[in-house]
Structure formats: C-alpha cells, structure tokens
Amino acid sequence: MDSNGDIVLHLVGVPHVAKPMKGVFPAKGYVLAAMLLLCGGRRMSRQTIAALLWDDAPEEKALTNLRQLLARINRFWPLDQPLIEAEGSNLMVGPGGRYSDLAQIMTRRKSQVLAERVAAVRLVRGDLLDTLDTGGPELSQWFRSERERFRRQVLGLAGEVLMEMTQFARAKKSDIDEIGERMLALEPEREESFRALIEAYGRIGDIEEAGRLFDDLKKMLREEFGIEPRPETAATMRRILANAPRPRLQVVSETEVSAVRDQAARPPALRNLAGLPRVSLFPPQPRPGETLHPLYRMLIEDVANSLSRHATFAVTAPHSSFDVADSGDRERLAALRSGYLVTGFLVPGSQKMALRLTRNPGDEIIWATEYQVELENLAVAFRMISHRIAATLASEIERDQLERLRADPKPLAYRHYLEGHLLFKNCDLPRLRRARVEFQKAAAIDKDFAGARGAVSNALQLEWLMLGANDPSLLMQARHEAEAAISIDAGNSVGHWMSAVIALHQRDYDKAAEQFLEAETLNPNSADLLESHGDSLAHLGDPDAGWERFQRAIELNPFPPDRYWWGGATIAYFREDFEGAIDMCGKMESDQSVLRILAICHGNLGHKEAARNYGARLKDMYPGITAADVVKLIPDKKGKMKDVIVRGLRVAGIS
Predict the structure, then answer these.
(1) What percentage of the chain's residues is helix, strand, coil (to nearest 5)?
(2) Who contacts 369 (Cβ-Cβ below 8 Å, separation ≥6)?
(3) Mapping DSSP to helix (H, G, I), strand (E, B) and coil, where does residue 20 land?
(4) Assessment of whether the complete model's pTM goes beyond 0.85
(5) 34 near 146, Cβ under 8 Å?
(6) Side-chain half-sphere of 309: how many Cα atoms within 13 Å?
(7) Could you give the CA distance from residue 52 to residue 7 in angstroms, rounded to a whole number?
(8) What angle do CA 554, 560, 563 make, to 5 degrees?
(9) Which of 1, 229, 271, 363 is 20 to 30 A from 628, comparing alpha carbons?
(10) How many whole angstroms separate alpha carbon 431 and alpha carbon 426?
(11) CB of 270 within 8 A of CB of 450?
(12) What pLDDT digit, counting tens, does each position of 449-461 carry?
C-alpha cells in the first residue's frame, strides 16, 4: 500500500475522508474508528463505547445513539470493505480500517525495514484527531491519555529513525528536515526532539544546520521558560563541533616550515616526488665468461614495476637505470639522483642470484641476500620470486628511511607517515589510533601530502568499524579526508580508493563500484587496493571476483598485514567457505576485529563451543549486541547474507 495514495480515512491531523461520498461523515465516527484501532484487541463492547461517546446520557439512550452512528458510518463510508464490523455485543475494525493513516502508522512503526518506519513518521501530519471537540469528562480523559500515548510513540519512533538513517553518516538533509517538521509540529517545545535533530544533522556533517537549530532551541527556552538547554543537549553540540572537520594547527620546527614553504610553489605531482627517496635497480652481472640471459633482466624489471606501487619512495624507470648500467658511465649514474641502488650478480658455481641494497652515495650495504634462480625453472617461479624480492626491498627501504628520520631531531612529514604505516600493520584499536595520529601529523606538516590524507581516512574508517559502527562522526571525518586527498591529487589512487570504501559502508553501492574502478585504473598493481576492492566486491554481490583480486593481492604481498586476512576472511564467508574464513582469521596477530566473522562461521559449521566463546567475547565488546545489529552493520547489496549471519549468531548465543 502506498504511504499516501491509498489512505482514505485520515485520523491523524485534521480528520477527513479523502474520497468523494454522499453526505458528511459523522464526527464521532472518526472517534469510534480511532478507539477501535487503538484498543489492544481492536474490539470493544457496545456498552463501553456508548458510555465513552455519550457519557452524559442514560445507557439506553447512549446505545441508541451508537446504533444510529453505525448506520450513518455504513451509509457514508465510500469503500466496499466495511470500516466497522459487529461481533455479538462487540464492535471491531473491519477490513476498511487498513485504509486509515492511523492503521498504517501503527503497522509500519513495528517494521524492521527503515523505509517503512520512515513512511510511518511521514504520515503524521498533526495530533491524533486534531481539532475535534473532546466532549464530556470521560471522553476528554480518553483524548488526553490517547493523544499523549500517540505523541510518545511517534516521537520515540522519529528519534529511532533519525539515529538509524544517519548511522552511516549519510542521509539527505531534506529527509531529516521532514522528520523534524513532524516532531516539532507535535511538541514544538520538546527539548529531546531538538537534541535528536541536532545530533542527526551533526552525524551527516551539517554543522551549520545543527548550530542553527541549537540557537533556535536556546532562544525558545529563554523566551518561553527563562532557562538554558540541558547539559546533555549542550554536550551533544560540543561533541558535534569537536568532530567537525577543520584544518589542524600543529607546532613545527623552523626547518619543517622552510621545507613546506620551499615546496609551496611546485605543482602537486612535483611536490609529491620531491620529498621521496629514489631507488634505481640494475640488472645482475653474469657469471664470468657468460652472457646474461634476457630473462634475468626481465626479472629485475618486474621487481622495479612491483616496487613502483609504493607511495613511500620513487623508482627510476628500468629503461634508464639499465641504460646506465650498460654504459658504465659514472656521470650518467649521478644524473639518476638515486638514494638507493639495487645491484647483484649470478653466483659462480651455483644457481643463485645475489642481490644487495646500498645507500648512495657511500656504498653502505643495508641489505643483502641470495635467491635460487635456476634458469630452467625461472619462467615458472618468475612472479613469485619477483614479488618476494620487491616486498623485501620495499620493507628494507622504508625501514632504513625511518631509522634515518628518527635520528633527525627535526623530522618532516614523511617520517610521521612511515611511523604510521609501521603501526598500521595490525588490526588492534590502540595501534590503529596511534597510526592515525602519525598520519595526521604528516598531513598537518605537508598540506599537499595526498597519501597522508588518504591514510588518515583509512585509519578513521577502520576505527569506526572496530567500534561497532556506532560513531558516524568517524565515518564522516573519513569521507572528508578522502575527498581532501582527491582534491590535492586526483591522480593518486588512495583518495578514490577510500571514497569507494566509505561509499560502500554508506550503502551507496553504485558510487563504491565506480570509485573502485577509478582507483584500480590509476594503480592496477597496488596490493592494498586489490585486497580492499576484493573485499568490497564480496559486499557488492560478487565474492568470486573479489576472491580473484584477493589472490592477486597475496601474490603481490605474500607476507601481508592483518587487514589483508580480515578482508580475505570476509570474502570467504560471503562465499560460504566458513573453514577458509576461519583459517585466514587464524593468520592474524589479533582476532579482535574478526570476532563477528569467527562467531558466524563457527556457528554455521555447528562448532557450538567455539561459536559461544566468540559470541561471549562479542557481547563483552559490544554490550547488548543483537543479530539484527550485525545484519545492519554489514553492507550486503543483494541481501543474501542475512540468514547466514542470523543462523551463525544464534548458535553463538546472540539472538
């Protein structure tokens, strides 16, 4: 039934029948219909009804009046389905009663579907039976109590709707405006309504509207009652203002200020490269008396391509570094301006290749190792060896950079960025928050550091998720940081990537898919991005495609941080591979972030003891958690996981 088009009998607001009829519908007919709809069993005895409607008349006269009223209702009711039906000495609502706004409100407010409950609030266009004369003492008391109960139910429902529709920091301002209009029309001086609306605007980041409403509340309270808003309302406003995205002020050293000023005139792309250490890779030297097989050069070139996905250093194109190596020209080597050199040779008398990473200038060896590279098997093991070398080199370069920056008493943005990434490898809340602080310091020092803003967004989004998705301000800030990263450097994939992740959690599925494709086009070989895209594809309804991307991510990063296994476990459980999901959770240093997945998977496998253990930990972490809460938390475009979640959590002791 449409929320407005099929409503014939209006009992909320000014009572009327929204359909042509012969004659005038009796005023007490509206009251009778409301009485029957609001009473517990939707039926009342004739004597009770007559005594309420004609409390100043003798019983016999009142019953006669009731019979006449029923006849008039039947005569003027415009639908075939009767509005009122008799059952012995009782009257009850007939099939036509469902075409009343009051019946629709009462039904829809109990729905588990948010849109249905929003529709219920939208049907409230005033008080119950507004403008009707209340009649004698008995009827007046009925009006007072039922109107008060109706208002409490509607206002409570509206508050719940506001909280749920802004849970993911995403709702249309016009929708909140409409709910607010209904709430304030019922009780214009109710502070709780103002507070719920202020919080709703704050949760979607509309600080201006929240502030305007708070000012309206203060003015109304002072003029009407001579009082100030309650402490809890003022605290709500303070919290909104504290969470509002704003430029951060940081005290930095003179060297840091100078470095930022020096970069200010450069285009964003040049500024991003200017502060990065540069790495040049050279083909290995052949064994004495031999010619280097082209496949070895291809191996090092592939390593260089894999390294180029990292945002913490720049890689010289192999074409240039190989040309320098072939010429042996020292001047051309200096022109590469490399801070690190990767060189190597094929070990005589073996099938090994020795590689070393040296700092330039100075030839200080930072890292050296040997790899088994039999030529006959190299084609098969090519990708595995390439990615293993790339991952190790990246780790060593970043570690060396961090050690050098730690020794500098005046660290720059890049140091904080690397410090954050060291803390970001594992999914426990304290380290996640410390990582966010480091990223924020980097972004405050270098206003054009898109990678730092994207990292802040990522940390905020994960923190929001680990806190049970109950703080929309974190998600709102994450969205702001992602948008800032895109505005600084639209060619950097990180802003588009995080914008996609946040859109997914805000149930904007089309935007999420579009932004992920944009990010992957900009950086097709980023293991972090592939893992995140794979996770999101599972939520978007294509877990098999998500699994393919996850496997590519693991190929690129075979020793990944915990968040990879979290994403892989999510994809596996969307594929209903519960054993696989549990196995990936077991690879994590901390299982705090995957307690929901573990409880669901063990529950679906019938592992009662394990499921209940994880369920108990979930209850400790999120008191009062229900299966419905988890269903709402997990984005699921096709809605296929609800039964899986509920079934697993039921075994885990969460109903």
Answers:
(1) 60, 5, 30
(2) 354, 355, 392
(3) coil
(4) no
(5) yes
(6) 23
(7) 27
(8) 105
(9) 1
(10) 8
(11) no
(12) 888 999 999 999 9
Angstrom distance (rounded) from CA 486 to CA 498 = 10
**Which residue from 244, 357, 243 is spatially nearest to 303, judged by alpha carbons?**
357
Is 46:133 a contact under the CB 8 Å cutoff? Answer: no
- Whole-angstrom Cα distance, residue 147 to residue 152? 9
Q: Which residue type is seen at 394?
A: A
Query: If residue 144 lies in a helix (H) or strand (E), which one and from where to where?
Result: helix 137-165
Identify the residue whose tokens are 């500098």: 408
CA dihedral 457, 176, 183, 627 (to 10 degrees): -50
- Edge-to-edge strand list for the sheet holding 43-45: 43-45, 90-93, 84-87
Q: Are 203 and 164 in contact (CB under 8 A)?
A: no
Q: Residue 601: which residues within 8 A CB-CB, separation 6 or more?
A: 573, 578, 579, 581, 582, 648
Res 317: pLDDT: 81
Q: Report, as ranges of residue numbers, the positions in the chain whose pLDDT lies below 70.
A: 1-5, 245-276, 309-312, 377-385, 387-388, 402, 404-411
Tell me the CA distances in angstroms from 424 to 6, 417, 418, 455, 459, one per residue in order: 55, 10, 10, 9, 8
Q: Is the peptide bond before 361 cis (omega within 30 degrees of 0)?
A: yes
Contact 651, 603 (CB under 8 A): yes
Tokens at 624, concatenated: 């009062």
- Number of C-beta neighbours around residue 631 at 10 A: 18
